[in-house]
Amino acid sequence: MADLSEIATEDLMAEVQRRLKCQDKPEKRLILVGPPGSGKGTQSPAIKKEHCLCHLATGDMLRAAVAAKTPLGMEAKAAMESGALVSDDLVVGIIGEAIKKPECRTGFVLDGFPRTVAQAQKLDEMLTNRGTEVDKVLSFEVPDSLLVERVTGRWIHPGSGRSYHEKFAPPKTPGLDDMTGEPLIKRKDDNAETIKTRLAAFHAQTAPVLQYYKNKVTHIKADRPAGKVADQIKATLG
After folding, report:
1. What is the average pLDDT score of the chain?
2. Which residues are identified as catalytic?
3. Where is this region: Disordered (predicted)?
């Protein structure tokens, strides 16, 4: 049993309030699939909050596991330091660890995984062993030409992950985060050449995941304004 004396009172109260609010929410296990720049990162926080889910971004989970020095985290660290790719089994294991946490009790929204059919199969195997399954897959669909424009104009607040766009969603003060006033950065891979390469990889490797989950897929027209995209998501999730 956890030693609650080590947890700050405000954190305990926040968790109690969250559980009271979320106790009647139906369970949902969601996957967001879409090419880079399709708006998954914009919509996932609202989905998480509205449906009391935990947000599982594989990159963040890997970094957290490494920082926490969990057995799987140390294995991932060794792979990354050697220049090797982190194996699918290892990523699925880290996802399995994450969904044991209390904030994932009513389900999760998974962003950035699975990227291939093989990964989807491993994820499903892990969930089946736990007596659960993926409920819905939201496919964020945007024309490639618009995605290039979206990504090349994107700016990020490194501390929180908040994203802005110089044309579609500019910050109140150019170059500064609205909440903290801290400088925004441009990711090194947010350029036209890189995004075109990533789009080709998405169409070749990740699009087949939608066929794999074909009976669970809802198609989201993500080239619309963020509010209209949110309305579509609300309509499908209830």
Report:
1. 89
2. 40, 115, 154, 187, 198
3. 162-183
